[in-house]
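Record 8-amino-7-oxononanoate synthase, 376 aa.
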Amino acid sequence: MSDSLDAFAAEKLAGLDAASLRRRLVPTARGPAAGAERAGRTLVSFSCNDYLGLSHDPRVIAAAAEALARYGAGAGASRLVTGNSPPLAALEERLARHKGKEAALVFGSGYLANLGIAPALVGPGDLILIDELGHSCLFAGARMSGARVEVFPHNALEALEALLRAHRGSVRRALILTERIFSMDGDRAPLPEILTLAQDYDAWTLVDDAHGLGVVEPGPRAPLEMGTLSKTLGSYGGYLCASRAVIDLLTSRARSLVYTTGLPPASAAAALAALAIVESEPERAARPLALARRFTARLGLAEAESPVVPVLVGEAEAALALSAALEKRGFLVVAIRPPTVAPGTARLRVAFSAAHSEEQVDALADALATLTPDRR
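=>
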């Protein structure tokens, strides 16, 4: 029986290899100042979502170390079994205040948050409308809910309204899923217009703010504000900010919270310290977008809307080759390939951080201009 399993895996791997779609884990040590060490070489990483460089900030590390020494390495069990650790309670209070909400709930990861939110709020007989470029976990949570799922073209307000007009009257509840900053394209959702449509049709809106928190703010808030602790805040975990009633409901009904071990206290303490830095140092928060716009201006690309800039290549093999060529020049910029993005749209996803210098940004832009002269 194991022979047939291994044969199945080998056949699938051969197909992935042929299409340049196989993924491999490459030993890499992240360091401060956007550094990364790989195969004995020091690279400048433009592949990390540590947008403010806070994962290596001494204040964040100290907060994690203190919590680690006081509360231990792990949470022990589900938060509903072992109780709510003090760092988690403090973090939830601070997140809710930051988002202008009554309460917050921290999950083990952003993926787990989105697996739990939609199924706790809607189900069979309800409707979910989701942007076609929504993150994989938004789709996973939507499908797990059992609700009817309709996908609308990316940021297409007329299509979204058409779906609401066609289906809202025949369902009990409707939920719109989108992102503040789309992770692979770096563009923004038209949130004011989406929230207006939601109000007109009595629909609820969940905004995934994984890539916007702290770097693309302020802005209109949705009733359901979800995000992660692993990007701007340099730690690990996910969260939802909402009304007290909604958070209390999810505390009982979100399966990915109820049946999962709680976030380690050190991760919560690190995120709490990072959020305090975000709020007290606005000049740091503004830097990633400024660097992204410096990069797009230097290459003649459309002005960046966020710290994420896609450099479209096309085919997966070509994207891998361009990534490898940049690595030889000292830059870590990973190729993004299907199924993460649509076939024919493989790209380099360039992520900018407050830890980058202007000289590093210019050097990357110049290297890309040299390697892809047809783009100029």
